[in-house]
Each structure stands twice: as structure tokens, then as C-alpha cells.
Amino acid sequence: MISIDYDKDTQAAVIAADNNVSDTTWAEIRRVCEEQTLQIMRQSARYITLPWWNFLTLRANLRYVITKHAISTEFSQKARYLLLQTEERRSAYYSSTTSVVNAYEIQQHLNALGFKRLLTPEQVRNVARLLRFPAAATFSVPGAGKTTEALAYFFLRREPDTRLLIVAPKNAFAAWEEQLEECIPTFSQSILRLQGGEAGVASTLAKKPIMALITYQQLCNTIPSVASCFSMRAIV
């Protein structure tokens, strides 16, 4: 039997096999994990742990191996709850029927939040469409106002514990900081730069920033720390 548990202290999935699972089958399961992520935290002859968010991305591959070998699987209560929560969120995204609010409502709500910039008609249209979904993306040419749209979306969606993680080239950091100052000055001191390697990033994350900037390269080298901080309540 394969057992799957969740360790809340490390936010990790714990995958273990009992003696009824052959060494060949267990090796195949381990290989699936190792091929899908570099973030393996611990492993031994009969168990492996990896960040929960990594487990979610590879669970279909694991399901294939487990089904192929007709292995029974047991989930802990916490792991089962998190998986059900994941499926509920996925279903909610695809079945979203939230009506698009009108331009006046969007701008009025932003004004009430202290958002100083007046959105253009095109930006209001884009933000209205983004607000229909719990997760969304926007694409346009440079200078079209995507940063303002992203900040508007964040503040309209924001709850007390929601955080913003901005992944961008280092030469774009100043622009984000300037845009934040112009859009909502009261939050201008809330954005921090994640830099200085693992130690520097961990030190900054200990301050529990509401908003943070990080480069693509720095993120690749500090994924466990950043993901642990931002995975639960983040808009990225």
C-alpha cells in the first residue's frame, strides 16, 4: 500500500510504501517524483517528501503508476481535505459565472481603497474581465498599462491576509515601485525586494511582506522558502 500524508510544519507531501509494494514499483514512483521536481526534501528506502505544491502537479503521473500496478492507496485526513479543496477550486475556476461589474463600480471601489490612478476605459474593461476568475492572465504590448491593471486586480481581490508576489527582471523593480507609489501611496513602503540569496530572501520573508519583488533567477534558487511563504494566500 502507498500512504500519502501532509506535514503542516514543512507544507510537504509524505509518500510512503509498505512492504507489499515491490522495490521495482517503488523505484518507479520515486522516479516520477524526481523527474517532475528538483525540490525533493527527504527520501529513504521507503518514503519520500516533497513540497505539497509539487505533489499537486505530479499527482496524475503518480495515479498512473499506482493504477498500473494495482496498488491500494491511503490518504491521511489532512491530505484528503487538501486534495478535495484543490478540486473544488479547480471546479470553481472553470464554472465561474461571476457577472462583470461595470466601469463605474470598479473605479468607485478603487477610489474607496485609496487607489489614486484613474483607469482608462481599456484598463477598466480588462480588469472587469479578470475579476470574473479567481486566477487570470493579461497580455499586451509594453506601455499598455498592465502593471496598473495588475495592481487594481490585486487590491480589488485582496483580503486581509492576501499577499502579492511580483516575479520580474531586476531592471523592472523600480518601475513596479514607482507604479505602486502612483497608484496607492499608502502601500508604497509595503513592497520589499527579495534578494541576497537563500539567507537574504529568508530574512526578508521573516518580515512577512504584503508585497515582494523577486527576479526569475532568484526565485529558481529559493523556491521552497518563497513558496512556503506565499503559497496559501498569494496573487502572483
Structural description of this entry:
This protein has 236 residues and is an alpha/beta fold. The protein folds into 3 domains: 2-94, Gyrase A, domain 2 (2-Layer Sandwich); 96-157, no CATH class; 160-236. The chain is 49% helix and 15% strand. The protein contains 10 helices and 9 strands. The strands form 2 sheets. Strands 3-4-2-1-5 form a 5-stranded mixed β-sheet. Strands 7-8-6-9 form a 4-stranded parallel β-sheet. A hairpin with a 4-residue loop joins strand 1 and strand 2. Helix 1 packs antiparallel against helix 2 (52-68). The mean pLDDT is 86.
Write a concise synopsis of the structure shown.
The protein has helices spanning 23-36, 52-68, 77-94, 103-112, 121-130, 146-157, 173-183, 197-205, 216-221, 223-230, and strands at 2-7, 12-17, 42-43, 47-51, 73-75, 163-167, 191-193, 211-214, 234-235.
Tell me the name of the CATH class of the largest domain.
Alpha Beta
* Low-confidence runs of at least 5 consecutive residues: none
Largest sheet: 5 strands, mixed
Count of the separate structural domains: 3
Principal-axis shape: elongated
Mean of all residue-level pLDDT scores: 86
Tell me the CATH topology of the largest domain: Gyrase A, domain 2
Structural class: alpha/beta
The Rg value, from CA coordinates, equals 21 Å
Notable traits:
alpha/beta, 5-stranded mixed beta sheet, 4-stranded parallel beta sheet, Gyrase A, domain 2, 236 residues, 9 strands, 10 helices
Topology:
Layout (H helix, E strand, L loop, with lengths): L1 E6 L4 E6 L5 H14 L5 E2 L3 E5 H17 L4 E3 L1 H18 L8 H10 L8 H10 L15 H12 L5 E5 L5 H11 L7 E3 L3 H9 L5 E4 L1 H6 L1 H8 L3 E2 L1
Parallel strand pairs: 1-5, 6-8, 6-9, 7-8
Antiparallel strand pairs: 1-2, 2-4, 3-4
Helix pairs in contact: 1-2, 5-6, 6-7
